[in-house]
Amino acid sequence: MKCPYCDKEMAKGFIFGGNHIRWYPEGADTMMTFPEEEGAIRLNATGGLVTSARAESYCCADCRMVITPVPEIEDPLAKVKQKWDAFTDRIEQQSEKRQTERAAEQHRKKRDKQRKKDPWEV
Ligand SMILES: [Zn+2]
């Protein structure tokens, strides 16, 4: 990555932290249980729970600047919700299919009963 200030190649490295490494907007309450509510952005794509967090970063020693690209992080809760939604959709579809089949069966039974009736019977 080129330094946006001096255009020289930046040294690739990482920011190291014990837990997740996050960027917070000015004035955010870092004691919050849910950093997302404070607008925090997680910078480490790996580590953070069992192993120490590392956020890929680039440093320009001349300009005294560090750039940390924001990684794409898959939210495990979003993944579980997606699976749950797919599951409930499938259950709903099966339920609708069963209701349609049941209605068709009742219609057929009613028709058969009418056919068996003696047309001269009063
Ligand atoms: Zn620079």
* Strand adjacency order, main sheet: 1-4-5
Task: Find the structural class using helix and strand composition.
Answer: alpha+beta
Bound molecules: zinc ion
Overall geometric form: rod-shaped
Number of strands: 5
Distance between the termini: 94 Å
Number of individual domains = 2
Brief characterization of the structure:
The chain is 34% helix and 18% strand. It is an alpha+beta fold and 122 residues long. It has 2 domains: 11-67, no CATH class; 74-117.
Secondary structure elements and their pairing?
Elements: E1 11-17, E2 22-23, E3 41-42, E4 53-60, E5 65-67, H1 76-116
Antiparallel strand pairs: 1-4, 2-3, 4-5
Bound molecules: zinc ion (ZN).
Write up what this structure looks like.
By secondary structure, the protein is an alpha+beta fold. It has two domains: 11-67, no CATH class; 74-117. Helix content is 34%, strand content 18%. The chain is built from one helix and five strands, in the order E-E-E-E-E-H. The protein has one helix at residues 76-116; strands spanning 11-17, 22-23, 41-42, 53-60, 65-67. The strands form two sheets. Strands 1-4-5 form a three-stranded antiparallel sheet, with no helix packed on it. A two-stranded antiparallel sheet has the order 2-3. The chain is rod-shaped, with a radius of gyration of 31 Å. The model has no long low-confidence stretch (mean pLDDT 88). Bound molecules: zinc ion. The site of zinc ion (ZN) has 8 residues, from loops. Zinc ion binds next to loops.
